[in-house]
Amino acid sequence: MGTRPIRDFRSDTVTVAGPAMREAMAAAPVGDDVYDEDPTVNRLQDRVAELAGKEAALFLTSGTQSNLSAVLSHCGRGDEFIIGRDYHILLNEAAGAAALGGASPWPIDCGADGAISPDNIRAAVREPDIHHPVSRLLCLENTVNGFVQPVDRIAKLAATGHDCGLAVHLDGARLFNAAVACGVGIGAFLDDVDTVSLCLSKGLGAPVGTVLAGDRATIARAHRARKILGGGLRQAGHLAAAGLYALDHHVDRLSEDHARAERLANGLRAIGALSLEQGSNMVWVTPPAEHHDDLVAHLEANGLLAIFWKPTMRFVTHHDIDDADVDELVAAFVGFFDAR
Length: 340
Ligand SMILES: Cc1ncc(COP(=O)(O)O)c(C=O)c1O
Prior knowledge:
This protein has 13 helices and 12 strands. With 340 residues, it is of the alpha/beta class. It has 2 domains: 231 residues, Aspartate Aminotransferase, domain 2, CATH 3.40.640.10; 86 residues, Aspartate Aminotransferase, domain 1 (Alpha-Beta Complex), CATH 3.90.1150.10. The protein has a 7-stranded mixed beta sheet, sandwiched between helices.
């Protein structure tokens, strides 16, 4: 690594709480949340339930714990959940539902933009038969790898799930990004969704926390699942306060992240040698294979971090990235390809 300051485009999870958020955390009134007595946690849960248009909500440690608690609330052992092949619960949550809940995923195809189709959902639902798992749940996601799933698409998929007798869970780790991109509130996506998981520690910039919202009975089951998973916290209001601060101050500004991702994509497109895609706050770049390793070394030497998967690398804009950081990154790419 060179001596220049690091500009970290790996993920929107790398943000660090600023002074005002830290002040709100320190000042939060707290109590024992395992006894449901933390006023700040309760305020956050009520606030998110209202935003989502749901009866109840539950504060959890992470998106993974929230998604798993949701799946465990909808599915029992031997049940199956239908899910897009590229979705996070399937690929990146350590098979928690199968490992801990005996519920198995049934992956269905996903377009490059993250879309799944109603026909594929219908085709994936099992006929009742003692040989088969029981199809119980449809898992949706928004955004998918940064790609916004429009309101009408989510509504159609959720309605299809319900027509097929499935419950519907939405992994909305970045649903606020989708909402801001579509110019709607998050509730617009959720009329026909049973449970939604909303992360506070991604684009919203809180240090920790996710909120799961749904009807009272399902959230009560998720509360029990959270306890089983060791997720009962005590004076968690200090953490919830960061979430409340983020909801007050960091939602509308997500449009700045999206504009910066577009600025980055436009800057890189001008280079010509790259294949790239952009959705909300993510830019996916595939350089010519012969240049991949040298390009990574060049970017790292300039203090520019991304997730350098091969063949496609991922750049994410967030609260701690400004226009100058984006311009530095574009300039580093231009410098690299000019020298070839
Ligand atoms: C779409 C999506 N869902 C869920 C998660 C899990 O969140 P966490 O890392 O808080 O467990 C992530 C994490 O990056 C994610 O991108």
